[in-house]
Specification:
alpha/beta; Rossmann fold; six-stranded mixed sheet
Length: about 475
């Protein structure tokens, strides 16, 4: 029996997206759409604390409990503390859970240490004003008593001497006596970090100057750049300031808790298991899809829109195993134009195409602020509304996006066009539906049929391999936890 669609994440007012009033119809509202609960696909997914009966209070309670095991004795009343955040956390389940963890961190640190000079430093990627919007939206400016600011990779830098030479952080990130690393376990760009040192990545991205964070995008590329974040975190300078880390623990079906530790690498091992086991199942299942229309309908840049915790950019690579570190180099990093020539073709014949199961992309609602022309060039794309098309034409990072896309006046017209051209009625909607996936009925039937086999394959074959590749001993972790 098919379920009604789950309410998608609502549009947000932002300089990076069209006005919410222009989003007239959500794809999930169209005929033939349904939803599948993730627990129906994978019954062994963990229980969540949010969304739930206790609402956002459950996140505060989980944060308070997790912090009880953390040593804060190094923080004195006369000291200053920078709580470090990253913009992606504010796109998880509407953003309120991450904001609540940040507020609770401030309250608990102040109560336990007597320190009152506690600031929020919220980093971004290529949308330099994005965290300023989040700070106001979630009342963080008031909660931190005017000491909450967004920091961008073009802000003044600070040299950090590491074992591989001088790298550069953002000065405002490190201008306190102590830093608290406040992040989340959502896998996000697994095509970049490959679930290797995921907990450490922000030190080379959200907290780094553009020259250093660009090792991911322009220099070394996916996976190879991971060591820069570790080098920064391990540096004497950062270690002299690091107090502890607090992570919002996330699974595809919601917030499962909060994890905090003075040992970031121990925490990293735990989120590696979480990311490989549960997100690995969703990505492996999505890799089974033989054909579909991908519908983007979420307040985020094109690559970061969500379906079951998986972003569109990961789905575009689901024809390969993004978790398998034994794969030959060209086979897992098509992302950005690093391995594509100016003619739009792969530089090497071994480089796979973007996921051929995606027959068309219907761009109903997604933001600018991230270079996305690569996707419209390689995947036939229909953008809904001339206002949205104009927004992309004005974005310096997307000047060529619409050169490879066509415009439909309405969501209904875009989907009808996609049905006729592709010949498929399978639709996967990236709209952030919480606890499930919004999709078309034929695709729902397909995924429900495939899920049991995928679940068994991940548990018995893929997960042990993925963890072994990352040096994580699951039995040892269970002993430590018990």
């Amino acid at each position: 029996m098919m379920r009604p669609p789950i309410p998608p994440i609502p549009p947000r007012k932002s300089q990076y997206g069209i006005d919410p009033s222009l989003v007239k119809k959500r794809v999930s509202e169209l005929p033939g759409m349904t939803s599948v609960l993730l627990k129906d696909l994978f019954p062994d997914l963990p229980e969540v604390i949010y969304p739930g009966e206790r609402g956002i209070a459950a996140v505060r309670r989980a944060t308070e409990e997790a912090l009880k095991k953390v040593d804060m004795s190094m923080i004195k009343p006369e000291h200053s503390v920078n709580i470090l955040a990253s913009h992606h956390g504010f796109t998880l389940l509407g953003g309120e859970p991450y904001a609540e963890m940040l507020k609770t961190l401030k309250d608990v640190i102040q109560a336990r240490t007597g320190c009152k000079d506690i600031r929020l430093r919220a980093g971004v990627g290529l949308r330099f004003r994005e965290t300023e919007e989040y700070i106001k939206r979630y009342g963080l400016d008031k909660h931190f008593e005017g000491k909450a600011i967004g920091v961008a990779p073009i802000d003044e830098g600070i040299p950090i001497e590491t074992e591989i030479g001088t790298l550069y952080g953002i000065k405002k990130v490190y201008d306190a006596d102590w830093i608290v690393h406040a992040h989340n376990s959502d896998v996000r760009e697994v095509h970049f970090h490959r679930q290797v040192d995921r907990a450490v990545k922000p030190f080379g991205m959200s907290y780094a100057r553009i020259e250093t964070r660009s090792t991911y995008h322009q220099n070394l590329g996916p996976r190879a750049a991971n060591f820069t974040a570790r080098a920064i975190f391990d540096s004497p300078f950062v270690q002299s300031k690091f107090a502890f880390a607090s992570f919002l623990s996330v699974a595809p079906n919601g917030i499962v808790g909060v994890d905090a530790d003075n040992d970031l690498y121990a925490l990293n091992d735990r989120i590696t298991v979480l990311g490989c086991r549960y997100y690995g199942k969703m990505m492996t299942l999505f890799g089974e899809i033989d054909e579909c229309i991908a519908a983007l309908d979420f307040p985020c840049p094109v690559v970061y829109v969500f379906a079951a915790g998986v972003i569109y950019a990961n789905f575009a690579g689901a024809n390969t195993d993004l978790y398998d570190l034994d794969m030959p180099l060209p086979a897992y990093t098509w992302y950005t134009e690093a391995f594509y020539g100016k003619n739009g073709k792969p530089l090497l014949k071994e480089i796979p195409p973007l996921n051929p199961a995606i027959k068309m992309c219907v761009h109903n609602y997604a933001w600018t602020g991230y270079p996305s022309a690569f996707f419209s060039e390689h995947i036939p794309t229909v953008v809904v509304g001339y206002e949205q098309a104009d927004l992309f034409n004005r974005d310096p990072q997307n000047l060529n996006y619409m050169k490879h896309a066509v415009v439909a006046e309405t969501t209904e017209a875009a989907m009808e066009f996609a049905y006729r051209v592709t010949g498929t009625r399978k639709v996967l909607i990236f709209d952030g539906a919480v606890g499930g996936i919004n999709l078309s009925e034929p695709l729902a039937e397909f995924l429900l049929k495939k899920a049991p086999e995928v679940n068994e394959r991940v548990e018995s074959e893929l997960l042990p391999k993925w963890l072994r590749q990352r040096g994580v001993d699951l039995l040892e972790l269970k002993k430590c936890a018990g």
